[in-house]
């Protein structure tokens, strides 16, 4: 068996990437795509996740050596919508005869803009239900890329990945379609749980560490107030903090949500100042090493997210 190994490094984490000629090689850019591709590909696919466990994808970028090795896979799956800032250069570098099938997993999902909008009370907030953008152009600087955080979007992404696997390995089409149907049912059930449970929640407003939950809020009738913007490392201004505190008071918010892969310092400081508590809301940009060892996946993490949302929205 031909084996090609490359070390992928980023922000204190490492993962071994091994391409094999025994299966269809699939390279994904972050965890949610890896999970979907692994479940659909089953034992016919060798699925490689570029970003190591415990590393925030916003902080990761490949080296030139990594890009070269990615071009040797049969299928490359990326999110799009501006999430992977490096991806356009990589795609431009691919030769037409490279043999790599490319899937933009967010294709077909109505995108949200992440720019601030003014709400009914006159405060500038990064609104959940922004203007939809159906195109996937080069300039994605103001587009919210976090489509996968909504199970409704995840359904479309899984379908796109299934189509990519069929395109790359048509001989196993029926196998991929059967696995996809199993995943589709799980995601449909998850979507139904979110729809039914959140519709009954007495509150609809959440405060989150960064603006990653716009699609979840749009699809299930919630409103997010982010501490930081579309990037998890952006810093709030003094005016932002003032508006967040007012939002907490006006909506009687009981919890501020934080994420495992980024610093919880700001969320905990705001919660302490407001006399409220914190909870985890995982945007599934990656798993912690503990979650990976425990066998968590997209569905189990999202089910935990739902329970925390319901607790906060009472």
UniProtKB/TrEMBL annotation:
<protein>
    <submittedName>
        <fullName>Zinc ABC transporter substrate-binding protein</fullName>
    </submittedName>
</protein>
<keyword id="KW-0732">Signal</keyword>
<dbReference type="Pfam" id="PF01297">
    <property type="entry name" value="ZnuA"/>
</dbReference>
<dbReference type="GO" id="GO:0030001">
    <property type="term" value="P:metal ion transport"/>
</dbReference>
<dbReference type="GO" id="GO:0007155">
    <property type="term" value="P:cell adhesion"/>
</dbReference>
<keyword id="KW-0813">Transport</keyword>
<feature type="region of interest" description="Disordered">
    <location>
        <begin position="116"/>
        <end position="146"/>
    </location>
</feature>
<feature type="compositionally biased region" description="Basic and acidic residues">
    <location>
        <begin position="116"/>
        <end position="138"/>
    </location>
</feature>
<dbReference type="InterPro" id="IPR006128">
    <property type="entry name" value="Lipoprotein_PsaA-like"/>
</dbReference>
<dbReference type="InterPro" id="IPR006127">
    <property type="entry name" value="ZnuA-like"/>
</dbReference>
<dbReference type="InterPro" id="IPR050492">
    <property type="entry name" value="Bact_metal-bind_prot9"/>
</dbReference>
<comment type="similarity">
    <text>Belongs to the bacterial solute-binding protein 9 family.</text>
</comment>
<dbReference type="InterPro" id="IPR006129">
    <property type="entry name" value="AdhesinB"/>
</dbReference>
<dbReference type="GO" id="GO:0046872">
    <property type="term" value="F:metal ion binding"/>
</dbReference>
